[in-house]
Design goal:
two-stranded antiparallel sheet, single chain, alpha+beta, about 20% strand, DNA Binding (I), subunit A, four-stranded mixed beta sheet
Length: about 210
Amino acid sequence: MSRRHAREAHHRQRMPGGDHADESPRARSIASSSPRRNWIDRRVLLLNASFEPLTTVPARRAIILVLRGRAEILHPDASGVLIHAAGGTIPVPSVIRLTTYVRVPYIARVPLTRATLMQRDRNRCGYCGGRADTIDHVIPRSRGGTHTWENCVACCTRCNHRKADKLLSEIGWTLAAPLRAPAGRHWHLVSKIRSHDPVWSDYVPALASA
């Protein structure tokens, strides 16, 4: 077995609800059944049987899970694309749910990224409440501040320029709310999502617009 095939096999084993379905004739028929190949690049939100968000998977993987009875479609993709396969015709999904609950390991610390910080602060400036478009270190890094959840806040450009490298006590400012690391497994998912279907926010509240 080549290194590439070994990595692919390992990935399939770790995918919630996944197996070796990608190698089946049914999977091959799906891949060639539609001329609108752009649906393959879509991401689908995968929920546990308990409706807890787990991860996102390629649309092709999602369809295979549905056809094999391992998942059900909760919301079809807004594109309305239909896939014709040996098992029938189904829409490209946007959200699917596993039919059997799977246990996933708990991850204690959520990685700090621009996306997750903006979602934590609801895209609002932590100083004036306006629309945030950048990130500020409450205690400037030039003055010993750390790049951590407890020292980073969403900020508008105006406040960022006014504050510069000053401490809040020096300019009489206060934070709108205490800064804490977000809690919950779904925040790990948020840190990896670049774009999403609005319906996903029904299951991942942190994706909802401010």
